[in-house]
Write a structure and sequence with these properties.
Strand content: under 5%
Helix content: 55-70%
Number of strands: 3
Order of helices and strands: HHEEEHHHHHH
Number of helices: 8
Largest sheet: 3 strands, mixed
Distance between the termini: 133 Å
Structural class: mainly alpha
Shape: rod-shaped
Length: 223
């Protein structure tokens, strides 16, 4: 069953809505004019960030050389009042009025936008919108659904558990290495002791041999 424009928008995440505006401006289906919600002049269709977002979401192609609100209704298969309010919301977004966007989003039941405190957005105008879009792409990256947050938290918890496990294994290996070192040190000490004892016995044997030699020499002298 084909979704209406309203159903499509309400099924979208805040990230998808922001990127619809961004991609609509990067690859416009109309000539961009930020002060126009859709008009036709000399068979050229003009539209603002909101128009570009709407056409991007609806995947309208080609765009006829006409654009007033009544034609939006037929072109997009949706309630004209919803479309008008959604376009107003997107226009607020491109003007860095996220709170105003969110007011309409809550009223109309589509995704609100979260913005980190201190994160600024440029107002998109005809002269700067291409250079300003990367900032809106960053805003899109900040948006996470509840499921995505849960998945990221689960993944972080999993990585933490793996790190704790590796740390425990490393600690165990270190303890084993210390034990082996202690055993090796003990064996080395025992070997050194045996070498010392062998050296002592060799010295004693050499001393006895020397004494025996002296006694033998003395016996030979007395004969």
């Amino acid at each position: 069953m084909t979704q209406t424009f309203e159903e499509k928008v309400k099924a979208m995440t805040s990230r998808q809505i922001i990127m619809a505006m961004v991609n609509g401006l990067k690859n416009p289906k109309v000539k961009v004019d930020m002060i126009s919600f859709g008009k036709s002049v000399d068979n050229v269709c003009y539209g603002c960030a909101a128009t570009c977002a709407v056409l991007q979401i609806a995947d309208v192609k080609p765009v006829p050389a006409l654009m007033d609100m009544s034609e939006h209704n037929e072109l997009l298969d949706g309630d004209w009042l919803f479309i008008a309010e959604f376009e107003t919301a997107i226009d607020n977004l491109r003007r860095n009025k996220v709170q105003e966007y969110n007011k309409i989003a809550r009223k109309r039941g589509f995704a609100t936008i979260r913005r980190r405190q201190g994160f600024s957005l440029p107002r998109l105008d005809n002269s700067n919108y291409m250079t300003g879009l990367p900032r809106y792409e960053q805003l899109a990256e900040m948006q996470y659904t509840t499921q995505e947050i849960s998945e990221r938290l689960s993944e972080s918890t999993k990585r933490l558990a793996e790190s704790v496990k590796r740390a425990a294994e490393s600690k165990e290996r270190l303890a084993e290495a210390k034990e082996r070192l202690a055993e090796a040190t003990e064996r080395a000490a025992e070997s050194a002791k045996r070498v010392a004892e062998s050296t002592k016995r060799a010295a004693e044997s050499a001393k006895r041999a020397a004494e025996s030699k002296e006694r033998l020499a003395a016996m030979q002298c007395t004969r």
